[in-house]
Structures are given as C-alpha cells and as structure tokens.
Amino acid sequence: MYKAFILINAEPGKLWNIADAIMRLPGVQTAVAVTGAFDVIVYAEVVDMSALGGLISVVHSMDGVERTQTAIEIPPRVA
User: Fold this and answer.
1) What is the full per-residue pLDDT of the chain (79 aa) written as tens digits?
2) What is the torsion angle, in degrees rounded to the nearest 10, for the CA atoms of residue 47, residue 42, residue 61 and residue 10?
3) Residue 69 and residue 7: Cα distance in Å, rounded?
4) In the chain, domain spans
5) E-strand stretches of 1-79
6) pTM of the predicted structure, to 2 decimals
7) How far is CA 68 from the centre of its chain?
8) Cα 43 to chain centroid, rounded
9) What is 2-72's CATH number?
C-alpha cells in the first residue's frame, strides 16, 4: 500500500469543485481546501505506483487544476 499527499494549486474560485470531484476518485481518503501555498490537499492510499500515477493523471486533467506536487510516504526503516 502506498500513501501519498497530492498538493494542488487551483485556478481562482475552483478549489471547492476540485476537492469535491477528487473525493469520488478511487484511493482518495480525503481532499480538503486549505489556505497557504496550496489550495487543495489530497490524501490517497493506492495499491501500487501505477495506481498513483493514474490518480495523478486524472487530477491533472481536472478543470481548474494548475499544477500539483506529490509527496509519497517513506515507510519506516526496519532495524
């Protein structure tokens, strides 16, 4: 299982529509509109990197999405 945060910059006035639409996508656990450097933050859990790539592609194609940055969880180091 891969866990990732997708940080989204949106066109003005579109962040709510983007967050609502993303919540319906497979693997998405939450999508929230936020203040600061990004407009929407998505938390997703997917089975593999291919699924994550597909999710990111769908997000990129959404109306109002200007750019994204993805942070993938690094699993804990096993001693």
Assistant:
1) 899 999 999 999 999 999 999 999 999 999 999 999 999 999 999 999 999 999 999 999 999 999 999 999 998 877 6
2) -170
3) 5
4) 2-72
5) 2-10, 28-33, 40-46, 65-72
6) 0.90
7) 8
8) 6
9) 3.30.70.920
